[in-house]
Amino acid sequence: MSKAFVTFNDFMSLPVFFYHTIGVDPYESPSSKAVPSRWLYVNFVLNEANIGFNFCMEFIFVVLYFKDAEHIVDVCMTICYLGFISVSQLKTGSVWRQKAKLNDLVYELESIFPAPNREEQDKYRAEHYLRRGQFFLRGFSGLYLFLVITYSFFVYVRYAIQHWLLYMPDVEKGMPFFSIAPWDWHDHWSYYVMYLLQVWGAYTATTGHISADLSIYAVNMQLVMHFDYLSKSLKEFQIQTGCVDNGSDKDLKSLKDLILYHNKLLRLSNVMNSVFGMPLLLNFLTSSVMVCFVGLQMTLGLSADHTVKLALFLVSAVIEIYLICYFSGLLIVSSEGVTAAVYEMNWLHGDTRFKKMLIFIAQRAQKPVCLKATVFLDISMETMAMVS
Length: 388
Hints:
With 388 residues, the protein is mainly alpha-helical. The protein contains eleven helices and two strands; from the N terminus they run ααααααααααββα. The protein has a two-stranded antiparallel ribbon. Helix 4 (99-111) packs across helix 8 and helix 7 (190-235) packs parallel to helix 9 (304-344). The longest helix has 51 residues, at 247-297.
């Protein structure tokens, strides 16, 4: 790594970067580099205006050609696009509405983040969890960027090859997404303007869709790090009763600090689910619908390019749900590990008060922490089997 120590902002850098590209400042943090609010506001307004324009053009296309049998495949795909845009906007709006809670969550996570010294960071294995989290965050965001690039430029690349390389004179220009236009862009320079507006809108929708997921993964990975550290601290707890003066009191004080630490992690997990519960629910609802909808379209005997696009859409939806279940599974295992750590620690030599306090922390840890799609769904790897 180029930096000497891992920081909280290293975990959150990718989701914050994508949020900033669409003009959204997800949270306020004293340690993060401030972005001029005027630039963000202008960027947000332009992005929203463009994606609203594209949404309206695509919606009108669906209305006009809904009963046209020749355009049934195009209409179905456009409905998928409209659903994707809607979910993207809802997820962004949901996180924005919870900004106050997200600010508190970030502040608390920063306050318990390992101090910037080698001993503390090695105890938490901060670099290990950062690398592990970034592997999934970069892979997930790379997949969706590949998806939007493929969707956006496939049509023009095909046109360029046929027109400029194969010298086919009757090749018609096309748009990456089916929609109407307020002007005739055929054989006109405005074709490129309309094309770029659609590409821009596709990026905005994709970024709004993945930024909330990336934030969930980053926060979740930090909580996993803290639960694992708590389990390690309990296993390595050194009983001082009978070894030093006031050993029992020192043991109680140290255990009390660990219990408070555990309580804080449980509370932060609840705040995380409160902030991201709606985006999680939207992910499961829309992915389930999209998988069925895309599967239906692929039975209609589509062309090769339509089949490839739909396959990419289907794969990305399945991977998104899998990653959510995977990260929730990590959180379940790490939070349940606290109970095993209490049992494995050297508690036999502690006094009665010490042992009673251990019972409470073990009982509380028996109810695992997981990602929750609001009150409707507790997410785990078993949830993946339900969806698929």
